[in-house]
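User: I'm curious whether this sequence folds into something compact or stays loose and floppy. Could you predict its structure so I can see for myself?
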Amino acid sequence: MADKKVTVEQIGSPIRRRADQRQTLIGLGLNKMHRRATLPDNPATRGMIAKVEHLVRVVDEG
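Assistant: Here's the prediction. I'll summarize afterward.
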């Protein structure tokens, strides 16, 4: 389980979004459109993705 990764891509702009959503994007390593980040697949990361699911897209799980 420790070696699982998830790749997310930012598809929405953080402009006019709440500050906590902008900070969540930065925490995920995303702060510009179409930027991708590969992160460990754990409950904390999944919670962050769920919080900004309207701004990001899961590209690859594995």
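Summary: The longest helix spans residues 19-27. The helical segments are 19-27, 43-51.
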